[in-house]
Amino acid sequence: MYKYISEAWRRPREGILGEALRQMAIKWRRGPSIVRIRRPSRLDRARQLGYRAKQGFVVVRVRVRKGGARKSRPRSGRRQKAMGVAKYTRAVGLREIAEGRAARKYPNLKVLNSYWLWEDGQNAWFEVIMLDEHHPATAPPR
After folding, report:
1. Helix (H, G, I), strand (E, B), or coil: what is residue 94?
2. What is the mean pLDDT of residues 56-71?
């Protein structure tokens, strides 16, 4: 079963999956940027990254704005010829930003891993797998 799921995700924009995800993205855009979901959208990828369907595992979908970073324009003092406002790249990737936002939203959970889900011209969505280390089902053996 996982083989067929991963084959469908190799070219997500084609076929039934692409159309379904396009419709879902329309709903995701209108919703909040960080949402806890019941189960992962990409079960094969989630299980590769350590997800198990048991208590203590939480999956969170995070929306991140795409594009380059912009620095604020200098307001006072001498104006440089090259102000250094536009054409800056981010110091960290979008996936890492999504993991950080999920960690801030759920401070009692630990980020286990994350994976790309979908993107359009303006946003990228990632699913972050989080773990409750204090839950008896997921606590490491002592």
Report:
1. helix
2. 91
Q: Would you place residue 142 in the very low, low, confident or very high pLDDT band (cuts 50, 70, 90)?
A: low
Distance between CA atoms of residues 129 and 142, nearest Å: 23
Instruction: Give the integer Cα–Cα distance in Å for 92 and 101.
Output: 13
Structure-model confidence comparison of residues 96 and 6, the more confident one: 96
Predicted TM-score of the model (pTM): 0.86
Collect all residues with Cβ–Cβ distance below 8 Å to 38 and sequence separation of at least 6.
59
CA distance 84 to 26: 35
Question: Do residues 60 and 125 lie in contact, with contact meaning Cβ atoms separated by under 8 Å?
Answer: no
Residue in this structure with the two tokens 């469908």, named with its chain if needed: 8
In the structure encoding, which two tokens stand for residue 58, read together? Answer: 């939480």
DSSP 2-52: HHHHHHHHHSTTSHHHHHHHHHHHHHHHHS-SEEEESS-SSHHHHHHTT--
* Cα angle value 74/78/80 (rounded, 5°): 70
For 5, other C-beta atoms within 10 Å of its C-beta total 14
